Amino acid sequence: MPEVIFNGPAGRLEGRYQPSKEKSAPIALILHPHPQFGGTMNNQIVYQLFYMFQKRGFTTLRFNFRGIGRSQGEFDHGAGELSDAASALDWVQSLHPDSKTCWVAGYSFGSWIGMQLLMRRPEIEGFMSIAPQPNTYDFSFLAPCPSSGLIINGEADKVAPEKDVNGLVEKLKTQKGILITHRTVPNANHFFNGQVETLMSECEDYLDRRLNGELVPEPAAKRIR
């Protein structure tokens, strides 16, 4: 997969990019865990997500947030990282103007950034939010959540306790017109130690079902004029 450097809001950003052979293939953007706690685009889960989308014909990009690896800039507590993600998506879209839709998948801190990006970009039609931390980060911006997606967490996650993730899921499930799928990996911690295979099989199953036209939400009720 080609190494790439592209311009971000705080300087150059470093990524790994794999274009699809199909000009109109959807785009997948993968976002890594917290930069100040060892998160990089080479995290095992981020790499596996990248490979999963690539295998299914997506044009796929993962990159290092500002200040990580060869990406310039300094950690910006989420605001700058969201701008980085938007720039990364702009960059891929500039190379693939025929691609009309995309997915965003984020792990831990990356899931918080991914969900914010989802709110700003109507072309994002699916998301995967892995080990989100509603106990640490504010997810109240998801009002309403514009796309269907998967939220998946570990049963034994002490960083993002299950009850907090369940609260986020229940809130999002009340919305009409989208379908939130929730999966819990038994005995898994925040890092899915020894459980990455189980995590990935859940993500693959979800993506395959979506691509096959399953998991369709009930339509939102039309307003009477």
UniProtKB/TrEMBL annotation:
Domain annotation AB hydrolase-1: ranges: 34-135
Q: Which UniProt keywords apply?
A: Hydrolase
Name-wise, this protein is Alpha/beta hydrolase
Write out the GO MF terms.
hydrolase activity
Claim: Cell membrane is one of the keywords in the record: no
* Database matches in SUPFAM superfamilies: alpha/beta-Hydrolases
Against Gene3D superfamilies, the record matches this protein to:
alpha/beta hydrolase
